[in-house]
Amino acid sequence: MDPYLLGLRLEGRRVVVVGGGAVASRRVPALLDAGAEVLLVSPKVAASLEDLAAAGRIRWEARGYRPGDCAGAWLVCACTDDPAVNSAVAAAAEQQRTWYVRADDAGASAAWTPASGQAADVRVAVLSVDPKSGDPRHSAGLRDAILDGLRSGALSARHGRKHPAGVAIIGGGPGDPGLITVRGRQLLAEADVVLTDRLAPRSLLDELRDDVEIIDAGKIPYGRAMAQEHINAALVSHAQAGRFVARLKGGDPFVFGRGAEEVLACLRAGIPVTVVPGVTSAVGVPASAWVPVTHRGVAQEFHVVSVHVAPGDERSTVNWELLGGSSGTLVLLMAVERIGAVADELLRYGRSPDTPVSVIADGTLPTQRTINSTLEQVESRIAEEGIRPPAIVVVGNVVNVAAEITELMRHVTALRTG
Ligand SMILES: C[S@@+](CC[C@H](N)C(=O)[O-])C[C@H]1O[C@@H](n2cnc3c(N)ncnc32)[C@H](O)[C@@H]1O
Q1: DSSP 127-171
Q2: Distance 366 CA to ligand 1 centre (A)
Q3: Using the 8-state DSSP alphabet, how is residue 390 labeled?
Q4: Taking phi first (over 0 means left), then psi (-120 to 50 degrees means alpha), and beta for anything else, what does residue 405 get?
Q5: Helix (H) or strand (E) holding 176
Q6: If you measure from the C-alpha of residue 63 to the centroid of ligand 1, how many angstroms do you get, rounded to a whole number?
Q7: Ligand 1 lined by 177 (C-beta under 6 Å)
Q8: Rg from Cα positions in the chain
Q9: 167-171 and 122-126: which strand pairing?
Q10: From CA 166, how far away is CA 158, in angstroms rounded?
Q11: For 41-70, how does the pLDDT look when each residue is reduced to its tens digit (9 = 90+)?
Q12: Considering the entire predicted model, what is its pTM?
């Protein structure tokens, strides 16, 4: 029988994912984008999933599957690498009449995951009539061709283009998948191998063909990370093996992103490399909270500072005296944990205690949060509100412009909605 296609509206509905490897890493971000409440059951999970659990975006039970785990689920994804476990999960779902997808056996699945993707407000899903015997690359290729055509305005198949060589270091923007550049997205779609970072727009990974190898180089603060030299070595070795490698990074690759180290490593190994600039979180995240980093008559300079080490730390090369004495906007990255020391230093060198400060966490993502405070109080406000990285801290009077814009927005919206 032919499958019956539906668009599942998962907002607020429980989806149980059993298994925490590569397949789950692809499926979970897409499920979250659809608003699902994801329960992940697996003794071990990939770094990206661990990160989602730490951020409270999914619930992770760090153990093996147990009978009863599928209770209350609207959809179940069995994605372990153990067919016996997948089979038990499927049987439990079948018994309770819940739709289930088995990653290892299309023939034993109640539902199939189509090759899907989004262009503007159109969601495209392509499903082979018989995924048991059909080539999944066919559906993915067709999906890509449709998406490319929709995005560029011309329906030209991806496979018809010349295959690029070497490595593309791609700035993915601050997190919203819509903020990657067109070139970045095109090169990502051409890749045979993708090395991705924690802060890269991960929901784009779900659009990749099933045969694309995804390597998670996610760096969790104080947690697991793939060492930079291993990342460089992986870029080089995959490219030397004739694969086209996309290195998908958050923001812009050359802004506190170690992108130039990767470029140098590739070139030293004789690998052709290209860089696609990205929207840096230093500017894009404030903009997403209506904070302009410059504004006529308010700030004619802005300083972007990495606070991965605190002021006073012997590794710090930042001139805090200069920043404290300036009236320009300060955009602080990686500052959440060290904000108290930063505020003390800026106050010591002349900034006023009531200087406005905005802290924007998870900028451009559905979980974005903004808190407004002053230099004197920002440390305690961050603690009270439980703000966690990634976050951008903006210091300066431009924060007041955001307040003005927000107020006017409210009026305009109220007028339009009557
Ligand atoms: C290692 S830096 C990478 C910056 C990146 N290359 C860029 O251009 O945005 C990581 C820091 O960027 C900031 N950041 C990145 N994405 C963010 C987001 N979506 N929301 C808030 N801050 C973000 C945070 O300060 C985070 O700790």
Answers
A1: --S-TTTS-HHHHHHHHHHHHHHHHHSS---GGGSPPP-SEEEEE
A2: 16
A3: S
A4: alpha
A5: none
A6: 32
A7: no
A8: 23
A9: unpaired
A10: 18
A11: 999 999 999 999 999 999 999 999 999 999
A12: 0.72
